[in-house]
Amino acid sequence: MIATTPLRILVINPNTSTSITETFKPLLSNLSLPNTSLSYWTCPTGPTVIKTQAHMYESTSHCIPLLLDMIDDYDGFLAACYADHPLVRLLQSYVGCKPVVGIFDASISAALTLVSAQTQFGILTTGQPFETLLTEGVKHLLHSQERDVWGHFGGVAASGVSLDDSKFEAKTKVMEATYRLVRNGTINVICIGGVILSGMESWVHEACEAALGPEKGRQVKVVDQLLAGIWTLDAKLRHGQIKSSDRASILISGLSLSRDLNTTPPYNATTDASGDPLESLVISTMEDSKVKGRRPCDNCRRRKIRCLFPSEDAVNCVLCMSRATECTYVQGPPRKKRALSSEADKVLDSGRVKQNTPVLRDYSNLAGPSLLKETLGHQNRQSSSFIGVSADFDPAMTVFLPFNQKGECLSIQTPAVLRRACESAHFMMRPDSEEEIDEEIANLDAVEKMVAPHGPALVELYFRIVHPSFPIIHKKVFLEKHGRTYRELTPIGLGAVYVLGAVYWSYSQTLSSLPKPNMVDLERLVLRMLFESHTRPKISDVQGGLVLMQRPDVNSWAMTGHVVSITQNLGLHIDCSDWHVPDWERGVRKRVAWAVFMQDKWGALVYGRPSHISLDNWDVLPLVDSDFPETARDDNDEEGSAEVEKGKQTFIHMVLLTEIVADLLDEFYTLKALRRRTDISDVLQRAKPLQMRLKTWHSKLPPSLAMGETTARRLSSVGYLHLAYYTAEITLHRAILRASTPLSINSDIRMITRTAAGTRFTSALDFAKRLKNEHLQSFWYFSSSVSLALIGTFAGILIATSYDDEERDLYTSRLAEYRWTLRISSNGADFMKYAVGNLDAGGQLLEQQFGKLAMEAQSLAAPSESPPVVEAEAPAAAADSKFSPDAAGWADFDNQAYNIDFEHLAQYDMNGMFSWDTTAKGL
To answer: Cα–Cα distance between 441 and 353 in angstroms, integer?
Structure first.
């Protein structure tokens, strides 16, 4: 439509932040929009900030009823929220021919006109949550195009900029994020995605030149979201469509940044005589950064980047300031780095990633609030080593040493630092050498390149699905580091999160329709780095090793020994409750320590190996709620996510169960225990307290952890907890059956012990049949696949030791039913496939031993209804009850008959000839 009267445009802020709306006005009010009137509106109710899809739908529900009362007052509408907001399309459906433009759609459309067949566009945004949100928005927008343009999208980089940042902090963050975005050299268009980033385009240009070189860096074009939106809307109002002449007004390239914009951008930028504050900011920034007469400092020369100074009087450059170091000018040209080894070399040779992102070394010098200040085990680019009491250094020698407020003594073995966590715990902190830093950054770049540009989406997947039930990483710390740059993490920790996150690739709306990267190569690279990490260990290496060992197809025993040794080097096996470290770090250390303890004990059980951890050298306090920083308020709203509170309780109760399993292994499965006398009286006496502890543990499970307690469209990992319980029960009964030889046991005792064992297998079979998709698709603990196989092995033991054909036939049929249940469930649960293969192999052994009977059982396609288990007569109070671990009436748990009846077995004179006590009433 061609306007003949003044055009009225309503600029809409769909959240309730009026301060954000105020930032629109100076940026738009003085544009050269002839015959146009701009009005601004802030939604009075709804979310104050939009970070998720749920926030967008909530704000839409608040905005639409109010906007419908105003649609006759305006000719066009600009939705000023940088996201794929449903408000745009919904409002368009109500206003008819009046145009509605979203600044997100407009900036992406503008970027697509600038990319070539070989180049891409990327988005620079504010907070880390927007990386996934904007990636999903671009996917939705581009998939609606007639031509295939998804390949032109190069990803999103979060800067972490906030309104509270100083100019220097904001500039550093913007430049670091831009480095990450353009490092692969394929991006030639950057969309500014966040209203508070307006006015910072000059820093983006400067970072591009530093990363790509002056010539190539100046070719990168920057698209401002608000200008793209307002010019697109103006073009639609005046012409009905966007012409090429309108595109020229939308795009901002080089240093010709919005000459019609006479505003004052954020961070107190001053204007020059021309009245153009943005150009003044660009010119002053460029002049300040190019201090004449200075050659590059040693750090910048080594990394082959421009040596930038924030002002004429600055002593240290931007890079050295961000790393808390001083500029030096003593070294010559950097020597050629030694060749990288193995997979990292191959990856980087094919497309080398530029190593130019400044990375902090000491978090105590980090500007602004951060969880990482005063940390002991999470410092960047340095390792810590616990000093044991019998080593060549004694705490008594530290009494008169000069420790500072952080507990550091700088005069010991420079450049290493002695740090005192408490009076009895000391660590040697060793900074990484420049060569080690270069190697680690190269490995980080190799890891990132293997998954680029999907790293943020994989991190989001991991924390949505795995982390709630396996909370060994501090989510906020990880995201804080990753939000600044992935180079602040360690390659082992980062790579492991990517590997396990990729297991749930199909649960990401962003990734599900895209090809998955080759995670086998990444896993191989991370494994190699893990086994090389012992020389300078970090807690993140232990975390990465634990995460990697949760892969269902990883044989983790050798890795377990390596991780346990690193754990001891880091002092994770020691009580840290009185250490001078942040509270959040105490929680991390305890959670990681208990995760290592579980890995060791369950690995010893399922692999049949001796445990690495002795309880005499384990001094970690039990976990409590305060050790977990997240609550139900931190639940992710996206479907297919796991629940934080349920996951926390699952982890805590798994630790408690593991303590029982540790004692069970020590009692029955060590080499010394296997050499002990194995008559049934001794075994039953030793088994009784363990059986009672297992019963008590199960009776105290909260109702929220019952198998039947699932939430719609939520994944639940409680299955691995219940499976672990059945595995513990069966492991105990295997020890009892081992002592129940025909020549050493009374027939009545044999009946009771075998019936109890059979009931255990039947309960495990019922558990497998009750598994829902919410369980099968969730995170399963590493031992789950072998635990399922052990249940089948237990059934095989019952078959092999049966005393008559009827009993053998019963258990053979039930084993076939169990195998069938796992087979039909394994199509949606890869962790079950090992157990199915193991049962198939076991079937061949049964066939060889029992011939036709086993063959017929193995050939069952769909087992018929199983015959009832022959149970021993129970006491009257429990005669009609059957074991149901998820029964609603858990208060009556003690009355349910499922244990070996130790009280009635006590009527036997085990040390005599199994004589019957005539005072007994019967079994």
So the answer is: 10
Which of 104, 121, 148 is at the close of a domain? 104
Do 826 and 788 lie in one domain? The reply is yes
Please report which helix (H) or strand (E) contains residue 235, including its range. Answer: helix 225-239
In this structure, the chain runs to a length of 923
pLDDT tens string 688-739:
999 999 999 999 999 999 998 888 888 999 999 999 999 999 999 999 988 8
Between 9 and 582, name the one with better pLDDT: 9
At residue 743, the pLDDT reads: 57
Q: What is the pTM of this model?
A: 0.57
Are 573 and 654 part of one and the same domain? no
37 and 66 assigned to the same domain? yes
Q: How confident is the model at residue 269 (pLDDT cuts 50, 70, 90)?
A: very low
Whether 276 is in a domain gets the answer no
Sequence-separated (6 or more) residues with CB below 8 Å from residue 436: 536
Task: Answer with the residue of higher pLDDT: 120 or 28.
Answer: 120
Measured distance CA(341)–CA(349) in Å, rounded: 11
Label residue 510 left, alpha or beta by phi (over 0 means left) and psi (-120 to 50 means alpha).
Answer: alpha
Q: Are 653 and 717 in contact (CB under 8 A)?
A: no
Q: Which residues of 646-662 are buried (b: 16+ CB within 10 A; e: fewer)?
A: bbbbbbbbbbebbbbbb
Query: Could you tell me if 662 and 615 are in contact, meaning their C-beta atoms sit under 8 angstroms apart?
Result: yes
Helix-helix angle 225-239:103-112, to 10 degrees: 90
d(Cα 17, Cα 49) in Å, to the nearest integer?
Answer: 7
φ/ψ (deg, to 5) at 646: -65, -40
Of the residues 51, 76, 104, which one is the last residue of a structural domain?
104
Asked if residue 47 lies in contact with residue 18, where contact means CB atoms within 8 angstroms, the answer is no
Q: Hey, how many other C-beta atoms are within 10 angstroms of the C-beta on 633?
A: 7
pLDDT at 563: 95
Whether residue 74 lies inside any domain: the answer is yes
Residues 585 and 681 in one domain: no
Which residues touch 781 (CB under 8 Å, ≥6 apart)?
A: 470, 550, 602, 654, 717, 720, 724
The token pair at 419 is 């740090």
Name residue 190's beta-bridge partners. 122, 222
Q: Give dist(CA 168, CA 36) in Å, integer.
A: 37
Could you give the CA distance from residue 100 to residue 84 in angstroms, rounded to a whole number? 13
Give the span between the Cα atoms of 406 and 243, in whole angstroms. Answer: 63
Compare 862 and 761 and report the one with higher pLDDT: 761
Beta-sheet strand order (sheet of 100-102)? 36-42, 7-13, 76-79, 100-102
- Quickly state the pLDDT bin for 297 (edges 50, 70, 90): confident
Q: Tell me the pLDDT of the chain averaged across its residues.
A: 77
**What is the pLDDT confidence band of residue 742, given thresholds at 50, 70 and 90?**
low
End-to-end CA gap in the chain: 94
Query: Where are the strands (E) in 708-801, listed by range?
Result: 714-715
Which DSSP string corresponds to 326-359?
A: -------SPPPPPPPPHHHHHHHHHSPPP-----
Count of domains observed in the chain: 4
Residue 286 CA to residue 279 CA, distance in Å, equals 11
SS3 153: strand
Separation of alpha carbons 24 and 183, rounded Å: 31
Residue 487's alpha-carbon distances to 359, 383, 478, 903, 915, in angstroms, are 7, 16, 12, 62, 73
Percent of the chain scored above 90 by pLDDT?
32
Question: What whole-number distance in Å separates Cα of residue 716 and Cα of residue 708?
Answer: 10
Structural tokens at position 279:
């150009």
Could you tell me if residue 621 is inside a domain?
no
Burial of 97 (0-12, 13-18, 19+ CB in 10 A): exposed
CA gap 591, 132 in Å, rounded: 28
